[in-house]
Design a protein that fits this description.
The chain has helices spanning about 65, 85-95, 110-120, 215-235, and strands at about 10-15, 20-25, 30-35, 35-40, 40-45, 60, 75-80, 100, 125, 130-140, 140-150, 155-160, 160-165, 170, 200. With about 240 residues, the chain is α/β, with parallel strands linked by helices. The strands form 5 sheets. The chain has a 5-stranded parallel beta sheet, covered by helices on one side. The longest helix is centred in the C-terminal third of the chain and has 22 residues, at about 215-235. It is elongated, with a radius of gyration of 21 Å.
Length: about 240
């Protein structure tokens, strides 16, 4: 703001990137720009259970590296079984007294070296072929009910925290038919954050990238901003 930037809090409802001058339509204005940085981020994939939203920050988290330290010495659970869930379970095993990993399949998906380490970590308890059917709380999370898919029996695990690691959804609906994405919908960029359309850049979690943290998003943003400056100076 000090150097003249304007910040407008509006909902973008349409983006047209095909021309040299890009058009962004919001719920209250239309903007035209020589360059655009796409930084719409992702949404965490939810379990879809009642009270899930209300318990975020009260026992439910979607990021072990962000919130794991709050549960040091306590008992926690992880929902998921792909590589991100395995990695988070290993991380939490160094902080929590016990880590229950609940997965709907009969084997984990991910890097074999990480899975082997998971299987040999004594304070990680496996609940395979199982899914969470109910969240138990008293203002804060106190446990989860799980159902064994083979026996149909339910049981309760008393935990202080639940880390949901079942994936993320990139917010690319507005531009998915214009910008090149990978098979999961994340935007593909080069090292300068440029996408497949001249004058368009992407930064942060929306980008096809293996590590999603605030610090890497800030780095993406800085690189994208400098790329925009270079582009405008050379093109216009």
């Amino acid at each position: 703001k000090q150097y003249g930037a304007s910040v407008n809090f509006e909902e973008v409802i349409k983006i047209d990137l095909k021309n040299d001058i890009k058009t962004i339509t919001t719920d209250s204005n239309t903007y035209q720009a020589k360059a655009v940085i796409l930084a719409m981020g992702t949404n965490n994939r939810k379990l879809g259970l009642p009270e899930e939203e209300n318990l975020v920050g009260k026992g439910i988290s979607y990021c072990a590296t962000c919130d794991g330290a709050f549960f040091k010495g306590r008992e926690v659970a992880i929902a998921g079984g792909a590589n991100s869930a395995v990695t988070e379970a290993l991380y939490l095993s160094k902080l929590a007294s016990k880590v229950h990993i609940i997965y709907r399949r009969d084997k984990f998906r991910g890097e074999s070296i990480s899975i082997n380490k998971l299987l040999s970590t004594p304070n990680i308890i496996l609940h395979l072929n199982s899914e969470i059917t109910r969240l138990i709380s008293d203002d804060v999370l106190t446990g989860v009910e799980i159902k064994d898919k083979l026996s149909n029996q339910t049981s309760v695990i008393n935990v202080n925290g639940l880390f949901v690691a079942i994936g993320q959804i990139p917010n690319t609906d507005l531009i998915k038919d214009q910008v090149l994405t990978d098979e999961k919908g994340y935007i593909i960029t080069d090292d300068n954050m440029a996408v497949n359309i001249q004058g368009v850049y992407a930064a942060g979690d929306i980008r096809a990238n293996t590590f999603r943290q605030v610090v890497t998003a800030c780095g993406d943003g800085a690189r994208a901003a400098n790329s925009v400056i270079d582009f405008i100076h050379s093109k216009f």
